[in-house]
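User: Second chain of the day. Same drill as before.
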Amino acid sequence: MAALAAGRITLTKGYLRRQTYQVAANAIIWAGGMVCLNATGFAIPAADTAGITRVVGVATANVNNTGGADGVVSVTVEYAGQFLLACGASITQADVGRLACVADDQTTQDATAATNDVPVGLVREFVSASIGAWVDILANS
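Assistant: Same format as last time:
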């Protein structure tokens, strides 16, 4: 799949926790998209990009910091629960219990397909390549 161009509803299950992060300059974060922190600690849309260490959660609302400096706006994310995320063909039933990595802000991939190995969390249930997989975004994933 491609990175989000609009907000989406991302299904969840389990007990979710929330955290707020300051958003990076010129970043647009879409509701339902995975969020990472950049090298300076500001929130950005998740991507398979060098320098990103982990996903911190899924955005609860759209946040547009176009033209803004680092930290002018904040985004609230949910984490510590399971999220139904797109996975394409790289995640299969064989990946249940394994670590999923970021492809883009709405898509996960297995670690062998990832270039920069940005972890999302554990695959808890594979639904299908067209629907996705339930991924557990842990508090310290």
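The mean pLDDT is 93.

User: Great, on to the next one.
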